[in-house]
Structure formats: C-alpha cells, structure tokens
Design goal:
Structural class: mainly alpha
CATH architecture of the largest domain: Orthogonal Bundle
Order of helices and strands: EHHHHHEHHHHHH
Number of domains: 2
Oligomer: single chain
Strand content: under 5%
Strand order of the largest sheet: 1-2
Length: 219
C-alpha cells in the first residue's frame, strides 16, 4: 500500500480576515449580491465574467470568452496581480503578494463553492511521500458490510460504478490509501470543505469500514 501526504489546506479563519480587503466590493454567503464587483459564491469552476446580470469590463468579458476559468491556479495568479491576468480590469486592488494570504483566502472562498463537482480541488492531490497517520489506525480491519451501510452519503457524489464525471472515483482504492485520505480530510491537512465536513463526522472504525467496502465493491 502506498504512503500518501496531501497538500496543506489554507487557514479558513485567516482567509476570512484576508477577505476584509475584498468585502468593500464583493460579498459571499447566503444573502450575497453583486456590488461594485460580482458576488463570489460558486466561484470555483466558473468562467470569468460568468454572470449575465453583472456589468463586467470589456477586458473581463474578453477573458471569459477566451476561456479563462476560475480554478485554484488561475485565482492564485489573479489575486497576486490582477492586471497581469486581466490587463484592463477596473479593479483597483493591487493584489496579494503573500502566498499564504492567497492560500488562506482561497480556502475561505471554497466554503462558498461547496458542490464537489465544481471544485477542482476534488481532483486527487496526493503525492507519494510518507504520512504521519497512527499505524494502529491503518491496522484496523474494516467491516465491508458496515461500509456498504455507510456508503450512501459517499455515492451521492462518487459513482459506485467507478465512473469519473468531474468527481474522482473511489472504487478499488487500496484500503490504506482510502484511510489516509479520509483522515487527511478529517484533520484538515487535505483541502476540501465538503470532504472535511463528511470525514469529520466519521470515526476510525467507520472510515475503515468504508475503505474495506470500496476496495472490493464488486466482489
């Protein structure tokens, strides 16, 4: 079984503080509306200049027509220097030069793009290096029948048949890899607010059971 570590997530609380620099023009949340700038709900995966009811600059409309979409990499580059990405933007914001501030802000904004299929960070972000998960947790023998009982919440997004329609397949994952991934979400070492929430509700035995079920789902 491969060992896995995951990209560190940003600090949502710190990101909310960084967002204070943006909130004079942008809103997020349930009651968010367009102001000087468009609201930022559902930002991840959205095409630039994607709202028909907001009056974007010509430069932003050209960028959107040219294929610019908001993902972690493009948002990071835009936040660092907006005019380098959209030269004619009307934004007076000069950018965030501190990489950690950008990472924290993106973690905060992800909270308002909570459909996994719209979040590129739902794609696998694992790299093959050592993890620090307790070996006793990896040694747990999961009950696949219990895992099948628990799997309903997983299969509302992940296809039980193993397909990948914008959301990564979890079928036939090695059990250790599945367990490490879920605990990385649970400890917020792996970035994805929906998965962090789901994993946070699961105990060690439940994670082990799900791992055993999905590792041999058709057997």
């Amino acid at each position: 079984m491969g060992n896995i570590a995951f990209a560190q997530s940003g600090d949502v609380i710190a990101g909310e503080k960084v967002f204070k620099q943006c909130k004079g023009c942008h809103q997020v949340g349930q009651e968010a509306k367009h102001r000087i700038g468009p609201h930022l709900n559902g930002l991840f995966g959205r095409k630039a200049a994607g709202y028909e009811d907001f009056k974007y600059s010509k430069s932003f409309r050209r960028a959107g027509a040219g294929g610019l979409e908001w993902h972690a990499d493009t948002l990071d580059a835009f936040l660092e220097n907006p005019k380098a990405i959209v030269s004619g933007t009307r934004m007076s914001f000069r950018g965030l030069k501190d990489a950690q501030d950008r990472t924290d802000l993106l973690a905060y904004l992800r909270l308002y793009s909570d459909n996994p299929s719209d979040i590129p960070e739902a794609d696998p972000t694992a790299v093959g290096v050592d993890h620090d998960l307790d070996p006793a947790i990896l040694a747990l023998q999961g009950d696949p029948e219990y895992g099948a009982y628990l799997s309903g919440e997983c299969t509302t997004c992940h296809q039980a048949a193993g397909g990948d329609d914008g959301i990564p397949s979890i079928v036939f994952w090695p059990e250790d890899d599945f367990v490490v991934a879920m605990h990385a979400y649970k400890s917020k070492k792996r970035a994805h607010p929906v998965m962090q929430m789901i994993a946070g509700r699961l105990g060690d035995e439940e994670i082990a059971a799900l791992a055993a079920y999905f590792a041999n789902i058709e057997e």
